[in-house]
Amino acid sequence: ATPTAIMVGTGLGAESGILVKGGEHLELAHRVNTVVFDKTGTLTTGKPVVTDVWSADGVEQDDVLKVAAALEAQSEHPLGRAVVAYAKEHGVEIPSASEVQSVPGYGIRGMVKGARTRVGNRTWFVDANVTIPDDVLAAFESAGKTAVLVAQDERLLGAIAIADTLKSDVQGTVKELQTMGIEVWMITGDGARTAEAIAKLAGITNVMAGVLPAEKAAKVESLRHAGRVVAMVGDGINDAPALAAADIGIAMGTGTDVALEVADIVLMHGQTHGVVDALRLSKATMRKIR
Length: 290
Ligand code: ADP
Ligand code: MG
Fold this sequence. Notes:
The protein is of the alpha/beta class. It contains 13 helices and 13 strands.
């Protein structure tokens, strides 16, 4: 590879908001045949909003929100922020919570008004022997919404449905990548039903759902071991190890500092189409070299 071609390529990238952190990444990117997208904050806007609150028999919707917001007020998770914003908008008085502990990939727990409470996903609640109303969750999840469950001790208080919209350019990006012969995957900590609904909207057929934050990197490794040349695209703290494990780590410029740090390429505008642009830039650069 001639240094001049690499320099020109890097410069062209920078002009269109594609920050390439070293010539070697530009040289490798043209060989990528597999792109793995994180869901929340990468394919979706990452600004989820509460759409429905369901409460169990004999429980007030307000009490579901009170417990959920009390815990989530101490969380930085986008789902937590959505719950707190909704509770505030609806004039819910948020009680204080103590001994709050967040459990990555599952949810958050703590004491509210002297009771042990938790807010989080199905897997976690099933493990804790909380009985789940599957019909309610099915309705939320098949619409692509994330169901956030709320419990006091082993008793389910209710569920909060949260929707996060696809970025407007996702469908076009996925189609172009597939036309380029690239295999497209979605990876998420969210449950299978929600993930499948979002993937379908995006045009993605390969889905890895219910992946714990600590397991994302191993999933990328396994694709590499199967002989794929993998670009991982993500935005969160959770994604950083997977970005590092990929042949090419691509971070959304809108993402967390850790993700930006470990990435090989940063898409400053945070739009998914930057992935197509980056791979094309690499191909063009390599053509000039040979
Ligand atoms: P993603 O991989 O889509 O970015 P995360 O790994 O951050 O998702 O979280 C995975 C799942 O864990 C979420 O979909 C949610 O069900 C649950 N979860 C994690 N943190 C919280 C929280 N603070 N409140 C409610 N649910 C949570
Ligand atoms: Mg994310």
